[in-house]
Write a structure and sequence with these properties.
Blueprint (H helix, E strand, L loop, with lengths): L7 H9 L7 H22 L11 E6 L1 E16 L3 E4 L5 E6 L6 E2 L4 E5 L2 H36 L5 H33 L2 E3 L4 E3 L9 E2 L6 E4 L4 E8 H15 L8 E5 L10 E6 L9 E8 L11 E18 L4 E3 L2 E7 L4 E13 L2 E6 L6 E5 L1 H10 L8 E2 L1 E4 L9
Parallel strand pairs: 1-22
Antiparallel strand pairs: 1-20, 2-11, 2-15, 3-10, 4-6, 4-9, 5-8, 6-7, 8-10, 11-14, 12-13, 12-15, 13-14, 15-19, 16-17, 17-18, 17-20, 18-19, 18-21
Helix pairs in contact: 1-2, 3-4
Length: 412
């Protein structure tokens, strides 16, 4: 009987070697039974050898401590200092539009023409009235000059001279009235040509050629855009903290200004700095804010009325602020973390508290010390290593640190 550990093939081998002659065929079968267990045992004895996970390459940088300016930002809307509604002073039919919609126009440039013929006729009528009243005045003057000596000699009744003088006064008044009507007719004729009152951008015309326009018709709007104003609202508490400085600047008792930066809607900073030139008269009751305006040069007309952006003003300085690149900060459910690399090149996750963003960096208010190394690139690799080799990551994930170079993202 075979033992418990003997393979079945060995038992069969013993049976085949029992007394008696064996044929060549049986010998070949015996060899097959002998080789099968050898191959099987050899295959079972091999075990898989897993390659060790290599420490990931990461880009690190040191925490920098330096003084950082602190800025305040507010939503702002652009508008021109002057937005002139173009409204005709007389009623008539529009004959021509002499500017291109949306183009820059100069003060005194012709914008529209209204049919002048009715006003030309009214002017001619007014001139005729002046001539008529002048003739009547001349006759009244002659009557007074003729009757004055006659009345003195009692050749005519005194009443006739009094009537002559009354007619003279009436004719004099008529001359003044007719001249005023002529002046008004000249003004009306001149108002048939509508000019721009300011330098600026003329918007699209609301009236078309052939329309009947009048004193209540808003034909277009011309907005002064150089300079242009950015209006924004700040809290009452912030305003009170800088009210004295702003008041001194606006009264020109000091020769400096508060520089204001404008961030356009595409997050691109406007290349020219502005200055605060306006503070509204009251605090808004509903919001507790006050409106300010900053003036910006706008020679090329890049900024247009109605545009939205942000104004940024330096409000102070943070002493010895700790800065790290924004890419090094991990945000998880409003909580912030940073991967710190220790002296033995082991990376650990550390919770931190963040402050304001400064350019491409972030101020860390709590959780880091100056000089510590933080991972900027390769954060995903560290997390993957920790998931694949949790035992090796108990005391920190081993990493191969390399210096982080700003602007070379994706190199790790």
């Amino acid at each position: 009987m075979p033992t418990a550990l003997e393979p079945v093939s060995l038992v069969r081998f013993r049976k085949l070697r029992s007394p008696g002659k064996s044929s060549p065929k049986s010998s070949r079968i015996t060899a097959v039974f002998i080789l099968l267990p050898v191959v099987t045992l050899a295959g079972c004895s091999q075990t898989e050898v897993r390659q060790p996970v290599q420490p990931p390459d990461v880009a690190v940088t040191e925490v920098v401590s330096q003084d950082v300016p602190v800025y305040g930002e507010w939503v702002a809307q652009l508008n021109g200092p002057v937005n002139a509604d173009i409204t005709p002073k007389v009623q008539g039919y529009l004959l021509a539009q002499d500017y291109a919609n949306g183009h820059y126009v100069k003060k005194g440039e012709l914008l529209f023409q209204i049919d002048p013929r009715p006003f030309q006729a009214a002017l001619e009528q007014a001139k005729a009235d002046v001539e008529r009243s002048m003739a009547a005045l001349a006759k009244a003057n002659n009557d007074v000059d003729r009757d004055t000596p006659l009345a003195a000699q009692s050749a005519i009744p005194q009443k006739q001279l009094d009537d002559d003088k009354a007619n003279q006064a009436w004719s004099t008044a008529q001359v003044a009235a007719s001249k005023a009507q002529q002046q008004q007719a000249e003004l009306n004729l001149g108002w048939t040509k509508v000019y721009s009152p300011v330098n600026g951008i003329a918007g699209a015309a609301n009236s078309q050629i052939g329309d009947l326009v009048g004193t209540s018709t808003k034909m277009a709007t011309v907005s002064q855009i150089d300079p242009i104003w950015a209006y924004f609202n700040v809290s009452e508490s912030f305003y009170l903290s800088v009210a004295g400085e702003i008041s001194s600047i606006l009264r020109k008792t000091v020769k400096r200004s508060i520089p204001v930066e404008y961030i356009q809607a595409n997050d691109v900073p406007y290349p020219f700095k502005g200055k605060i030139i306006f503070v509204n008269r009251e605090i808004t009751a509903g919001t507790g804010t006050i409106q300010l305006a900053a003036e910006f040069p706008n020679t090329d007309g890049t900024l247009r009325p109605g545009g939205f952006g942000r104004v940024r003003v330096q409000t102070g300085n943070t002493q010895n602020a700790m800065l790290v690149p924004q890419a090094a900060v991990i945000e998880v459910q409003s909580q912030y973390q940073i991967i710190v690399v220790g002296p033995e090149n082991r990376a650990t996750v550390r919770p931190v508290k963040v402050g304001d963003r400064v350019g491409s960096n972030w101020i860390i208010t709590e959780g880091l010390k100056p000089g510590e190394r933080v991972v900027v690139e390769g954060i995903q690799k560290v997390q993957t290593f920790a998931a694949q080799a949790p035992d090796a990551a108990k005391e920190g994930v081993p990493v191969t640190p390399k210096p982080y170079v700003a602007g070379m993202g994706g190199s790790i």
